[in-house]
Specification:
The protein is mostly helical. It has 23 helices and no strands. Helix 3 runs parallel beside helix 16, helix 4 packs across helix 22 and helix 6 packs antiparallel against helix 7. About 1% of the residues have low confidence.
Length: 409
Amino acid sequence: MLDKLLTVTAALALVIAALSVRIQRAPLSGPLLALLTGVVFGPEVLGVLDLPTVVEGHAELHEASRLLLAVSVMAIALRYPFRDVRSGVKPLTVLLVVAMLGMALITTALSAVVLGVGLGAAALLGAALCPTDPVLASSVVTGEPAEKGVAARTRQLLSLESGANDGLALPLVLAAVAIAGTLSGGDALLESLWQVLGAVVFGAAAGALGGKALRTAERHRTVQSGPLLVYTLLLALFVLGAAGLMRLDGVLAVFVSGLAFNATSSVSERADEDKNDEAVNRFLVLPLFAVFGAMIPWREWGELGWWRGALLVLGVLLLRRLPVLLALKRPLSLAWRDVVFMGWFGPVGVSALFYLTMEAHRLGADPVVLAAGTLVIAASTLAHGVTTAPGLALYARAGQRDRDREAAR
């Protein structure tokens, strides 16, 4: 099975690499193409990738999404100079505290009303689907169309939010597990404090030591020159593994370690290399989305009912995030085009898959929760994949109109 997966995903990656410029300008994205490839080669169509559904194979999918998130959030932490990260602390705090809680509550309410499930199942969906996914969001913040057309501050806020809230969603997920299962509220609070605070302390220490060690080695010429990606990937894997051994929030620990590494290493002096690292990271997402496409629980999707599924998807895509950010326009100090852009491009993806499978591991697989959650993930991958190029073009035109108005005054 591994050989088949390698063949399919590597062939897809070669095609995407060869047509990367055209794909960036088309209503397509790498994750969407990988998802569709997984569906076509999966057990329901060609049967090449004969994998179990998400309901049956959630444990393996959890570990794969955990690894991919670690690589992704490390790339985000290194994307901008650390001084720029510090300048965005206030709006980022609003996004991570107020907006994320609002998105979780709205998704919980939608799940309860549309699916008719109890509070426990609705809370599990609300918590798992609230984080903004760093993997899918990267297509609207990186690459030539995004960097030329979208305001730098908007791209930075969306990047940092998607990197940080993957780990910071954990307390909401543990609260949902407490509501749906046997974990008490006090135990959920203590575990949240340990996992989050411990991740911040450990991640900061590991990243700072790693950054200083690299700078010292470069100064004394004891390290061979090589791609920064290799060093930061090894750091991410070390932090993720060690955090797991200490039962800390591994994804958050990796993100914090990346910020600390950014602040203490020579990463800001190697901007050209960072571009290459981003390009490599863009291709690492393809195998997971192909596997997800092959593991779609079609039967459980059908049991949801087509109208319930469609209503949930539309509700989450349109109401989970956009109204919340519109209400927070003033605290975020965003122009209308920026708040609408960020409100729409807050996709549901790998981070939701990570938390859905975590919940399944702790409580046992709930077919309704996994079916509804994966349906929203697939719909978000499709919706945000086909709207990325048009959305970037509309944003650029709106910005040009604003500049023309200012010039005419």
